[in-house]
Each structure stands twice: as C-alpha cells, then as structure tokens.
Known about the structure:
heterotrimer; A: mainly alpha; B: 4-stranded antiparallel sheet; 9 strands; 28% strand
Amino acid sequence: MIAKPFALFKKDFHSELKTRYAINSLAMFIIVAISVILFSIGSETINENLTGGLFWVIIFFTAMSGLARAFVSEEERGTTLTLQLIASSSTVFSGKFIFNLILVFCVNILITLLYSVFFEKFVVQNLVLFIVTFILGNIGLASASTIIAAIIAKAGAKGTLYPVLSFPILLPLILTCVQLTLFSFDDVNFVEAQVELAIVVGYDIIMITVSYLLFEFIWKD
Amino acid sequence: MSSYSIHSQSLSKSFGRRLIFKDINFNWADNGIFGILGPNGSGKSTLVKIIAGLIATSSGKISHKNSSGEIISENLHNHIGFVSPYLILYEEFSAWENLKIFAQIRGINFNEEKLLNYLQQFLLDNRKDDLVKTYSSGMKQRLKFVFALQHSPDVLIFDEPTSNLDEDGKKVVYKIIQEESKNRIVIIASNEIKDIELCNEVLSLEDFK
Amino acid sequence: MIWKIFLFILLTFVSIAGIAFPIVENPSKWYEFPIIPGLEENAKIIFFHVPTAWLTVIAFLMSTIFSFRYLKKKNPDDDAKAYSAAQLGMIFCILATVTGAVWAKFAWGQFWSWDPRQTSIFALLLIYGALFALRSSIETEDKRATLSAVYSLIAFVTVPFFVFIMPRIMKGLHPGSADDTNAGPIVDFQMNPSMQLIFFLSLTGFTILFFWMWRVGYKSIIYKERLTKQLLMPAQPVQGG
C-alpha cells in the first residue's frame, strides 16, 4: 500500500539530490528572510507576540517558495504523462504529499533552530505543546500546499499564483498555529489549549481528505 | 491468447464547447493491430489518451475488460503500454535507472534479463547507463518502446510510433508490432501509410465529426 | 415582468423605510423603531449590511454547489453558473465589507479592527480574488472550469473555520458574537415587529434581486461562449494531435 508512493518519493528525492533545485533555493530563502528581519529590528528586542507571528510568516513564505516544485517540476519537464502512465492518481498524490511533508519538516526544523538562536523572546515554556503544534501545523501546511501545487502546475501560471491561492486556504491554520505558539511561550497547559488543538486537528483531517478526493479531477483533465 | 477487450460506447469528447469527435463505437478484443487514422488536429492523440484512461470522456463510456471482469480506472495504467511524441522520460536519470524507477513505482518485479533483451532489440544496450538527456531524439523514441513493454501490458498504444526514427529503428518497431499483436491488442494512431498498412482494422476519425 | 415591478416596489419601500423611519425610546406608532443598546441610531445599517453579508454567503454556497455539479457532470453551463455566482458574491462581499467598515467607524471608532467577522469577510474577499486570479490565468475552457471548481471546493471547506472558529479564538466586537454582552441576539429579542418586518422584507428583496442578477449573469456568459464558439469554430485549429 505505502510501497508505491514511497517509491515515487524516492524518485523525487534522488532527482532532488541530482538537481538540488528546491534545497538550494529554500536554504537561501530562509537565510535571506531571517536576516532581513534581523536587519530591520536592529538592536531592539521585539515582543513575544511579534516573535510568534513572524515565525509563522517565515514558515508560510518559505513553504510558498519551495513546495510548488513537487508538481511544477513534472509539468515543466513534460513528465506528467509518464507519471500518469506508471501510477494511479492516489499513488501520485500520496507520493508527492510524503515528499512535501518531509521537505516541510526539514525546512521548518532549520527555521526553528535558527530562530531560537537569533531571537531572544523565542523561549518555549511548554515544549510538548510547541512540538505538537509544530507537527500538526506542518501536516496541514503540507497537505494544503500539495493540492494547490497540483492546481497551479496545471494552470500553467507558476510563481506568483501560488501564494495567492494558498494564503486564504492556509489562513485559519496559520492564525490558530500562531495562537498555539504564543500559548506555548506562556506555558499554557493542554486543557486550556484544547479548542485550538481541536481546530488544527480538524483542519488537517479535512484538508487531507478533501485534497485526496479532489486530486483525481486535477490530475486527469 | 489473452481474453482482453476494449469496448467503446458512443464516445464523445469536447474541449469546453468545442466538439472534437462524437459517437465513436468499437469493440476490439483479444489480439490484432487496430489503426486510428485522421489528419493533424483531428483528435487522434485525444482519442488514444481517452482509451488509455488519461483523460475523461465528455459523454459515452470506454471500458476495458479481462477474464476477471471490468478493470477499474485505479488499476488501468498497469494494463497499458503507451508511446507518444508527448511522452518524456526522466532526463536526469539514465535509461536503466528510469526503468528501475518505473518498476518500483508500478510495484512490479525488476526483470533485468527481459529488459536487457528489449534494450538489445532496440539497439540501446551499450548506452543504457548514460543519462537520458544525452540521447538523440531517435534513441529517446526507442527507449519509450522499452518503457511501454516493460510491464507486459495487455494493450499497446502507439501514437505516431515511427516519428523521429531512422530506417533501422522503423524496422525494429514494425517487427515488434507484428510480434506483439499476436497475443495482445496493439493500437496505432498515425498518418503514415506504412504504419496504417499494418493494421487489421482502421478507424477513421473523419467519420465522427 | 410582474415580479420585476414587485421587486422594484419592495426594494423602494425597504430603502425608504429603512432610512426614514425614526428610532425612538418607546415606540408607539407602527413606523417607529426601538433603541437597541449598543447600536442606537446606527441600527439602521442592519437593513442593508446584513442582506449583503447574507448574499455573500448565498453566492458562495451557489458557486460551490455548481462547482461540485460541474465536476460530476462536466457540463459547461454549470461552470458558467458557478462563475456568475462568484462574480456576484465578490460584489456583495465588497459591499458588506464597506458598509461594515463605515458602521464600525461610528460604532467602534475605527474602520478596521480585525474583529473575527471582519477577518472572515476579508478571507472571503481573498478567496474570491484568488479564484478570479486563477481563472484569468488559464486559457483552455475546460481546464479553467475544472481547476476553479476544485479550488472553490477546497476554499469552501475552509470557510467553516472562519465562520465558526475565528470568533472563538479572537475577541469579538461585532453584535451577536460570542463575547458581545450588550447587543445579544438582535433579531429575536430586541427588534419590534415592524422592525423585524422591514428587516425580513429587505432580506427577501435582496435575495430575489440576487437570483435575478445571477440568472442574467450566467445566461449572458453561456450565450457569449456559444457565440464565440460559432464565430471562431472554422478558423480555430483543434487542440491535440
């Protein structure tokens, strides 16, 4: 069941190692984004709210700069037809989802590490809550951005359209994750944060289900 | 002999409000070479893609059946071998790596002996470890036939099979078509008279406008 | 024709009544409205603001339903209906945002304060904007229809998050929101019958107006598409080989 999507993931992974297209641009994007914020702050310290908010802003825009590759690269090289011939649409969706999920996790772990080094107020009190938020947020981010990537790859208009289409879809997730991140700074316990956590879990489940169901329509036009 | 059949029932396709063809009916079974003929822009590629289950019909139905019943669209790709000028293999990998990746994603056995044999027939065996991007267009075309035959499909669909090929290449392709048509369905979409002459049955798209 | 005249009279009456009927402390005559704490004179916006917000939601719903139907049946008419509903939805969404902001200026002191309702309507505006950006970037008709239908459906499942959940996690100022103590459920308890009557008449009038505009909208799209097809058909090469 998982073997075929995983083989597709492996193909993308080796392809990425050979071309290093996404990895290089993502790494540079993170460095640029964080340094721009650091320059503009100067010697001041920004407060907790802003730190938590900017954290997710960076995560969002980094995702927007890299995750579209999953489908756009196939469409650009003209290999979509090949992929349609060797795999069912559910295999393709799952494979690309795994790839984006792993990419999101790697990138966001890097962002978190850099962030905790450079930002004084990025002090997590409730570590477990933060990790849970981080994991759930990344799953939601990967699922929504995979399906939107499939749409824009087929739409033919690449760069600018991606954040435009993704932002309204990701907005509830990001707003809730910002809230949860602030909770984890303030050492709020799980019981108080349960509504927000339920929202994120609900979002993840709904988004994965809907994207999985709708993907076939995009893939077989 | 396989007991595979492709049945088309009043098949129509339009893009938006533009009609491509309508009311195509055929019933192709077991083995043989079936040709799809039509001038440029008549919808040959569209029809073969519909037969391969790659794009949806606007109305009507296409069904693939084997001895155990109708094949669901989720598994259809495993029964079809497809060659088309629009097909592009992964250029950053070698031919051998490409075939290996395809076997893994399909979830089938990587049969080295069989593939070496095919590569030899298509005169590619000495270049199998070179990256596909270094291939000439004729070599890429020949590699697509190996790709199409790799998983022993029940249906072979060749869209303009001899484009980009030299005389030697064409000879190999015709030989393969003749051989394969003995125990499976081979569908050829083409304008080339020599391609169409091979066919047992020809469907002219001009009749379905 | 008759119902168009009826609609005209209805909306004229609602407009005049909504603007001209006075708000007094103890309404005694039928045309007098009561004071609603927290809203006072600003309450009259209800007759115009609420219907536009309502129609934004209806239009979004219609657009989603017909997107879904398009994906099931691939009938280009359904796409025209979904698109036309989205266009109207965008217009009413802008109207709701503007009337809401004007009201907010007088009630809360500023045009915009990221109240949950404001955030939600802003997100709807973004969704509509994204949908039109997507549509304008695709040339092929059926591809445009399919992709925008899929996007509408994805957007649709995120809307409940805004409508039901945002007010729970953000502080609300809007009448009727979770922590709004002074206004409460306005329609049921604090309106007098005549005010309710005008309110529901306005809602009905605007809804009829919407369905009329929608019909005109999608019919014109369908005719336009058929006409272009007829005019261009002989000259246009068929796609694919």
